[in-house]
Amino acid sequence: MVRKDGSRLTPLESDADLLPLVRAREFTRCLLYWIPASPVPIPSVQRLWLNSFLDRLSLLMTKSHGLRSEVFLQYKTLIPDLYESFVDKALDLRPLMGLAQRPGQEIPPVPTLEDLQPIIEGKEKYDLGKFVGDFCYWFVRKNEKWQREQFWGHGGMTILYLAPDPATKTAPLRIPKYLREYPGFSELFKLFDPDQAVADAQALSDGFRKKSLEMYAEELKKSVQLKGIPFVIPLLSTRDFFNSPEDIFKKWFELFDIYVNESPADKGILIASKLDIEEDLIGILKEMKEEGLIYGGNRG
Fold first, then answer.
1. Which residue, 236, 235, 232, is CA-closest to 210?
2. Domain ranges across the chain
3. Alpha carbon 150 to chain centroid distance?
4. What is the pLDDT of residues 179-203, one digit of tens each?
5. Element containing residue 144 per DSSP (H, E)
6. Tens digits of per-residue pLDDT, 95-111?
7. Rounded CA gap, 58 and 35, in Å?
8. How far apart are CA 281 and CA 163, in angstroms?
9. Alpha-carbon distance 245 to 209, whole Å?
């Protein structure tokens, strides 16, 4: 039951309207939801449902809330199975490496020869997690739907929804029609889109990068490895939302409005929002159910 002002008079009946999303009702600092998804890689039928859900969520966030999405992928997720595919698609992704920082976790120090000796001698296997921090790629080129279709479901993607940045806006280059159609140039423009190249370059001016570096300034000073890093995003699990101090929590939501993260630690997907999007989510889920799209099942 809903009041005239849109607020709910009674709680959702067993939260059935939100399934398969589960809301942390006891958590009140933001809206926090969890979608079960395991093992990794997520089974294809779940991945298809999640991508359909995120297609609708992204469209709604853009049209109704004026937000845009930025996509990030954990470096460790690529090793070993996805790396070849990633390299093959790199020109269409325009990846830029930064850091995804887990609260309270420091970057592993550069390994010494003593650290590596057991591996060299074959006594131990190389452990990527032991020696490499949680570096991640930001996809500078904007194509969230396609990017998710390539890499979602492997436990390493984060999507941030945030307000547009005027600094990244571009206008089409004024290249005369005769020049675009001139022999030689016309063939070049089939291989190289100058408008896209300008958009890619302008995207690097995105203000979230500077804001993220300011947010993590103290941590960055402590690590020589992070000197010159272009951005840092938080890598969060359910525990981090519950346990982090209020000042840290507020800084996260100064960087983004909505946080979507594949979280293997939680065996699922996290959605955290400082905006009241619950009715939006209910509407999306109702629409999907009416279309016969059932999580973990088949259409129809």
1. 232
2. 14-162+216-290, 166-205
3. 13
4. 666 676 666 666 667 778 888 889 9
5. helix 144-151
6. 999 999 999 887 776 66
7. 17
8. 19
9. 23
